[in-house]
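Q: Sequence in, structure out?
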Amino acid sequence: MALAKQVFNWRMLWMLLGCLLVFGGIFAFKLFGNYMMNQALDNMALPPATVTTARVEQQRWQHTLRAVGSLRAVNGVDVTTQAQGEVKAIYFESGQSVEKGTVLVELSAEPETAQVEVLEAERRLAERDFRRISELYKKGVATLRELDQAQASLDQVLANLAVQRATINERTISAPFSGQLGIRQIDLGQNVAPGDAVVSLQQLQPIFVDFSLSERDFSRVQEGQGIELTAPAIPEQAYQGRITAINPAIDPRNRNFLLQATLPNSERQLRPGMFADVSVKVEKFRSVTVVPRTAISFAPYGNSVFVIRKADKAAWEKKHGNVRNRRGQTMPAPDWIAMKRFVKTGEVRGDLIEITEGVKAGEQVATTGLLKLRNEGAVIINNENPPPDQLAPKPDNS
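A: Exactly. Output:
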């Protein structure tokens, strides 16, 4: 029994050794294949990437203060009723432009009109009494007290008549200023109460924009200073205006102060309540280094550009002399190579972006094809169709 058990153990040992040799050989073959594949890929050159380029420029930019503002009508109200009554007539259409004093709505005023006729009769009687007593007083028949009572009665009737006429005028609703009407809020035959909204009225030309700046900029702005406004609701359109009012007090809650600028709005494109970006033009200029915005590769770990420079062909051939393409041919040394460089960006204006650190004026950077580039990779420059690089681009209206 002991001999048989010993023979069995040796057989199990040889089986285990055989399995180890088989699987070890397979694993070693796999590693060798991966190594040879990596070697082949390392020695296979990628084709040069075709890019457009632009020179890093030095420009003088006028310093601006940027803020977020809200557009507001010079005059804007909800036209309301002052009296209670039934809507007798409506003389406007929703969205209509009206002039100051244009009658918009008329309420029923039959009882008030009848009361005016009663008061007119009382006025005529009071005037006759006053004239008769005045003649009698001149003749010494009537007393001064009787004359004063007749004058008081006449004055009282005239006052009541004025009040009644004012009440009737309240039933005629007119535009308080020239502007554009909104959507009608009442209907014919509707019984309205004092304070009920009839329609919104907005004066759109010119228009205000209210915005805030930090207290540290208080001494840098003044009335009459120019501003530029852009609104997301009207893309690729800029509007010029001037500061017309500056709040003299600083808000202690956020240390900002309020400003108001006025802009022409003859085409009525800007509307009250719109969100707007405001740039206040300060006289001071500064020198900036700029590149097209398309040259920047934005990434969470840092922004970068690819600087395009002349290739050192001798160094390239020394380093990559054995690099071959997919056909097995030796790759020639390129004329241009791309060098990745991290940069710090600043203000953006139009198609350009400020570079505060990382590149110098005169250097050449890639502006398209960035996803195909790698550090020290070969490139081909083709500037037949470069991307836009305007400081103040204008939309193509053709």
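The chain has four domains: 49-60+288-381, 65-73+203-285, 85-105+173-195, 109-170.
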